[in-house]
Amino acid sequence: MRLILLGPPGAGKGTQAQILVERHGIPQLSTGDMLRAAVKAETEVGMRAKAVMDAGELVSDAIVNAIVAERIDQPDCANGFILDGYPRTLAQADAVEDMLAERGLKLDAVIELLVDDKALVGRIVKRAQEAQSAGQPVRKDDNPEVFEERLREYYKKTAPLTGYYYAKGRLHTVDGMASISDVTGRIEEVLRSI
Ligand code: AMP
To answer: Which end of the chain lies in a sparser environment, N or C, as judged by fewer CB atoms within 10 Å?
Structure first.
């Protein structure tokens, strides 16, 4: 199963992806996590991406497309994967189509998590507080100021993907304001229906 989770930052994509990993035994491919790992390891990609990520802007399509293309060829992706936070631009969405077509694979579904904007910033602040109290590093971009820029980027560059996938008949929309388990339940319903 090859799945895309779509939605603004704080919509719950990462949370749902982790649950789906457990249930379906396919990996979560989070470009945000991969980029943060590259920043931490101080690789060339990481050094190029750091300032852009800290500002809440999007890293270049070329960088993320290359990271994902390499990742989906790993053996653990043989039975599918969940794309979390990718694609985020129309150019990335086109790149996914090409990547899959080149490998003779197809996308099964795109699931959009719909969440009220006002709830999003609260979720991000909570995530930062929880990380801090658990003694984990707090993401530099999880603060209200940078969050505003992340949301602007989302509406400008990522939101058009809903029309893109709707036109392809692949878009499924789930109410992301429901409880975590209810959202999972709705996603599972979608997966059963495809
Ligand atoms: P995330 O963890 O998905 O919220 O991503 C954190 C940051 O990583 C984003 O604000 C971007 O700077 C960068 N990033 C993650 N995924 C992408 C992507 N698909 N395209 C461009 N930038 C990305």
So the answer is: C
